[in-house]
Amino acid sequence: MADTSLVEQLLRLRPEEVDNLTKYFVRKYHLENYEDLFIKAGKILRDPEASMSVPHLTDEEKNALKHETSSGFWRQPKQLQVTIITLCVAAVVQGCTSLELPCFTRAVVDILTREPNRNERGQPELAAATGIVESTGLRSYRH
Question: Does an H or E element contain 105, and which?
């Protein structure tokens, strides 16, 4: 099961098995006050397309599920967007510096030392992704 995703693993389980594993998890980590919530979450994770048919969902939970499936990345809260983008850039920087790509390392130093663009409130903004790609020379990079 190590090579499959969590959803694929959950789909292989019968609904009763998901409930039993959820109850075990709740007891193990002393989350008994949230057992119903975890059971609903397990059922939703097991079959996301049937999430609206999970018993005992509140209207608020149904609205949250509808919003989650209909909203793309750019409709998420700005703090979440910044966090995800920052982590992605950090992963790329770590990967490229560990591979010692000189064009990338030089570009990162240039980006980090240049004066940032500022928004209407005078706060620094992140560099546009296309600017980063163009300044790295990665379009012409070959092994």
Answer: helix 102-113
User: Distance between CA 22 and CA 18 in Å, rounded?
Assistant: 6
- Residues of the chain short of pLDDT 70, as ranges, are 1-7, 97, 100-143
Q: What is the model's pTM?
A: 0.48
Residue 121 counted as domain residue: yes
User: Cα(37)–Cα(103) distance, rounded to whole angstroms?
Assistant: 49
Q: Which residues pair with 124 in a beta bridge?
A: 118
* Amino acid 106: pLDDT: 64
Which residues constitute the domain of residue 26?
A: 6-70
Contacts (Cβ under 8 Å, ≥6 apart) of 104? 93, 96, 97, 136, 138
Q: So what's the pLDDT on residue 24?
A: 92
What total of structural domains would you count in the chain? 2
Domain presence at residue 131: yes
Cβ atoms of 136 and 107 closer than 8 Å: yes
The answer to whether residues 11 and 51 belong to one domain is yes
Q: Same domain for 86 and 119?
A: yes
